[in-house]
Specification:
Largest sheet: 2 strands, antiparallel
Radius of gyration: 26 Å
Order of helices and strands: HHEEHHHH
Structural class: mainly alpha
Mean pLDDT: 78
Low-confidence stretches: 9-36
Strand content: under 5%
Number of domains: 2
Helix content: 55-70%
Amino acid sequence: MVAGLSRGTLESLALNVPNPSKDPRSSTNTAADDGVPGHAYRVLVLAFLVGGLLVCRTAIGLTYYTQMGPGPGFFPFWAGALLSLFCLMLLIQSFRAQIPAFDIPEKGPMLKIVVTIAAIAGFGLFIERLGFVLTMFGVLLALLYVHGCRMLPTGLVVALTGSLGVGFAFSRWLGVFLPPAPGAVLQFIGL
């Protein structure tokens, strides 16, 4: 017993005292403290750097500029160059300062990340089979639900308006070919 405090009171106080060495808001918390080695961060940055350089190398084989303006090699070249530049900056910074800790999201945010990645993959897999409008409708509906839209009528209206609106804008106003729905289901509205 210390100064009138029982053992249970001391234990409860000890449980509520934050440990500064494990405080996630602490600036001294590094990847090495959490068991993630610093070289894993650098390997990831190097992988993206190599990816950016490969994009640049591939874009060099495409036409950079045409008589009408930028050609098909313009955007990939500069996107790869910017990715490589940012990765190079991160790599240099990783040797100058402590590497920040990798935070693994909790269950809720992790579910949102997984569903978003699955929606992107599903979009790529089903766009040729179901067409742009139907695929985009499903993707938007799934993403709206996972990210908090619990009112079905609102989700349906937003997904329908988004898929039809984007499909119409790209196909009619911009002249971009989008895969049509199977069986000409949406042909009566020009999609």
